[in-house]
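Worked example

This section walks through a single chain of length 127. The input is the sequence exactly as stored; nothing has been trimmed or padded.
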Amino acid sequence: MEKSGADVTGGNLFYTIYPKGQRPQSPVFISKTLNWMEDIGGQATGDQKWGFSGQSINLLNGLTSGEYTIEFYAQMDGTNPNKSEYDSNNGLNYKAYFRYNYVRSLLMATGVHLLSGSIRLYPTALL
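Given that input, the structure is written out below as tokens.
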């Protein structure tokens, strides 16, 4: 956002991915450069859109089947004053959860349970 003579000159998106519920003590964040895309509402508003254009990020590279957390925050750099501003959910960062190639056991998914050598069938709504 450009107001009162300030100028946003660039930014970065930082993200890390780890197994759900297993946040590393000191997570390593990957940085992706944010590029200016357009002025929103015309130059008079000072609002800008920053993001990715023509880039693809493979978030699944190197992951095995399981449940994961993606944690991310953004940093925008500017002049007048020369400083960086962070959008980081008040320092807690933003988090989203996802499953990759995650399949519950076939027995659980169909409602079949093996108990002491016998098979019991239950509607999955009761599980």
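What to look for: The longest strand covers residues 66-79.
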